[in-house]
Write a structure and sequence with these properties.
Length: 425
């Protein structure tokens, strides 16, 4: 595109109100906006909308779905059932900030069904849902004892005489501090202190065996540690923890790395809140960068699929998980322990081709008489975008030439779903 940046502020032609900042806010901190939501908010101030989002941070998981997820944790639920549950959540309208944070933590604290049985993954997902906007220290204390994580990072059966170092290493590198803030001696000491935990495969619970635990204390991040709680406290109290967590969450929500000044401010908020997650989220959501048109990151496949399903008005049952496998982001199947990257790979030709094929297949399930997409503005609005470059507008408007209105509507919306505007959040 050679004109207006994908995220520049515009005035919507129909409402004559600056709806772009609200759309950007909803796109970055929820799985929305939902079709029709932006016109309803056109007269609202961005601060009012942000305040409402921050006032509604409870888990919106319906009781029946929560019970279904608990049941998956108590039996031999299948991988397919868990994936279907995940898809149902991201396409549900108005799931809010909590759902966005649940899936953020799924990428920050990865566990894969390739290695871990579905019941344990289901239980871990419930754990993340409980802590998504709670206390980071409590989340870390729970996750290093979590049976799914113990299996995934080889903490299950790690004995003090020769402990496995994977869990300690990833706790430091990926969960709390980042590279450069610990040494190999810290990894070894952490592994000893984390030893002695086993998964009871009859109950699915994690149990501690003192006889398998390394006896003694070890120097870890500058202090003496003996057990899990000591390790978690040392990592969470380290000066690098608050900026590491704040920076990663800012990048995920806003789309770029924070400036040094912004990172220092966010880390301060996080520390003063004793690592409570919600105040950090509030600071990011109310920062000017959250709607900055110069920022934004590639739309991940799961985010794109949520947009496509909502735009076309289809439910999760219409989504073939194979498309997310092809696109590279099937829930509960991260590519590695570091989760899904936020780089430009999601903008390549393979993604465009895969998303086009998936959109066409989804569109084939829709009654064409139900969609009325007469122009480019309508198509992008259904996708939650209010800005259209001249190039995209010209392409989408020409799609209807020589076609009946129903076919033109479907193809125009499908084309909008693979436009540059929808490829960036």
């Amino acid at each position: 595109m050679n004109a207006t940046p994908v995220d520049a502020t515009i005035v919507d032609d129909e409402t004559s109100s600056p709806v772009h900042p609200i759309g950007t806010l909803l796109r970055r901190v929820t799985f929305g906006p939902d079709p029709g939501q932006l016109p309803r908010l056109a007269s609202r101030r961005i601060g009012e909308v942000a305040a409402e989002l921050l006032a509604s941070t409870d888990d919106t998981l319906p009781a029946a779905d929560a019970e279904r997820l608990r049941a998956l944790g108590d039996d031999d639920g299948s991988e397919e059932t868990l994936v279907a549950f995940a898809l149902s959540r991201v396409v549900t309208p108005s799931t809010g900030i909590h759902e966005r944070l649940v899936w953020y933590w799924h990428g920050h604290l990865t566990t894969s069904l390739d290695k871990v049985p579905p019941p344990l993954v289901a239980r871990q997902h419930l754990l993340i849902r409980r802590h998504a906007l709670g206390d980071f220290r409590q989340l870390m204390a729970a996750i290093v004892r979590d049976p799914a994580m113990l299996v995934y990072l080889d903490g299950d059966g790690s004995i003090g005489e020769k402990p496995n170092e994977n869990l300690a290493r990833e706790l430091l590198e990926l969960f709390t501090l980042g590279r450069g803030h610990y040494g190999e001696d810290d990894v070894k000491a952490g592994a000893r202190a984390l030893s002695g935990w086993w998964v009871d495969w009859d109950t699915g619970e994690a149990v501690f065996d003192p006889d398998s635990h390394a006896d003694g204390t070890w120097r870890f991040l500058g202090r003496r540690v003996r057990d899990v709680d000591d390790v978690v406290d040392a990592a969470c109290d380290h000066p690098a923890c608050a900026p590491f967590v704040a920076g990663r969450l800012f990048h995920h929500l806003v789309g770029t790395e924070p400036s040094p000044a912004r990172l220092d401010q966010l880390a301060g908020v996080f520390r003063r809140a004793d690592l409570a997650i919600l105040p950090l989220v509030e600071a990011i959501v109310t920062s000017p960068e959250i709607t900055d048109p110069a920022r934004g990151r590639p739309t991940l496949p799961l985010e794109w699929m949520a947009t496509a399903a909502r735009a076309l008005g289809v439910g999760a049952d219409a989504i073939d998980p194979w498309w997310l496998i092809t696109l590279g982001q099937l829930p509960f199947y991260p590519p590695n322990v570091a989760g899904w990257p936020l780089d430009g790979r999601w903008l390549g030709g393979h993604q465009v081709a895969g998303r086009l094929a998936a959109a066409l297949e989804l569109a084939d399930t829709v009654d064409p008489d139900r969609l009325h997409v007469p122009d480019a503005a309508t198509a992008l609005a259904l996708c939650g975008r209010t800005l259209i470059s001249p190039t995209t507008r010209s392409v989408l408007d020409r799609i209807g030439d020589g076609l009946d209105p129903e076919t033109a509507s479907i193809l125009r919306l499908v084309a909008a779903l693979v436009s540059p505007e929808v490829s960036v959040r």
